[in-house]
Amino acid sequence: NAVPRPRAGVRFQSATTYQLGEALERGEEGLRKAENLQLGTEVLLQVLPSLPPDVLHGIAEHAKTWNQLSHPNLTPVVDLGNVERDGLMFGALVYRTRARATLATQLERTGPMRSELIWSLCRQLFEALTAAHEKGFVHGRLSPAAVLVDGGTLELRPPAGLPFDEWAPWAAPEAQPTGCAAAAAVFAAAMVALTSLEPADQRRRSWK
Predict the structure, then answer these.
(1) Terminal CA-CA length for the chain
(2) In angstroms, what CA-CA distances link 142 with 15, 21, 31?
(3) Neighbours of 2 (CB within 10 A)
(4) Tens digit of each residue's pLDDT (9 = 90 or more) over 113-168
(5) pLDDT at residue 25 in the model
(6) How far apart are CA 7 and CA 102, in angstroms?
(7) What angle do helix axes 115-134 and 182-197 make, rounded to 10 degrees?
(8) What CA–CA distance (Å, rounded) separates 201 from 173?
(9) pLDDT at 174 over 60
(10) What does the alpha-carbon distance between residue 62 and residue 204 come to, in Å, rounded to a whole number?
(11) How far is the C-alpha of 159 from the C-alpha of 142, rounded, in Å?
(12) Inter-residue contact 143 to 192 (CB < 8 Å)
């Protein structure tokens, strides 16, 4: 059953407020450039949907666990921020990353990647997954939208806050919205690699 969402925005308590900038994904939620209003610095953050406080608390705890993995290809969460949208405050995960696009948006702009580049990116992706799996953490939302890219560098952002429907097209048949086994995450990574090599008009899968 879907988690009921409150009608008003729900924010992190005692968190920094950020001013939203350019959207890097479609929709009101998702990856955005933003400015730290206290320091005047630009950051990259993921705007979260309106969620019950207990779910928001769970996302914060999930982010702490993610940061403990500490791998160069895993994007760390550096702050739990708040953003204003339509007069309401929403929570956001603030990332430390040099990336300025998701793999999904990159493919939409440029089409399929050269095989040499995608295999290099996938090597980084599988190294990140291996490091996470060795510590007992399985990424349950792996899709092109979860992958951040900057030229030949890849980072995987945490699954917290990423909707299941964006990941489902790449999921193994046995995967569930509540989680998946490590083998299912590897399956999703392989699907991401194959999709990145296909011309846009031949892709049978879609993303935001």
Answers:
(1) 23
(2) 28, 25, 15
(3) 6
(4) 888 888 899 899 999 999 999 998 888 788 888 899 988 899 999 987 676 566 56
(5) 78
(6) 29
(7) 170
(8) 24
(9) no
(10) 32
(11) 7
(12) yes
* Contact between 23 and 17 (Cβ < 8 Å): no
Copy the structure tokens of residue 44. 């990259």
List phi, psi (to 5°) of 155. Answer: -135, 145
The tokens of 151 are what? 């030229």
Which residues face 84 on adjacent strands?
Answer: 89
Strand order, beta sheet including 101-102: 101-102, 147-150, 153-156
Q: Per mean pLDDT, which of 28-37, 61-70, 79-88 is the most reliable? A: 61-70
> For 13-29, what is each residue's pLDDT tens digit?
656 888 888 888 776 67
CB atoms within 10 A of CB 129: 23
| 3-state DSSP assignment of residue 20 | strand
Q: How many CB atoms lie within 10 A of CB 203?
A: 15
- Average pLDDT, stretch 28-53? 84
- What would the two tokens of residue 77 be? 């969460």
**The two structure tokens encoding residue 33:** 């450039």
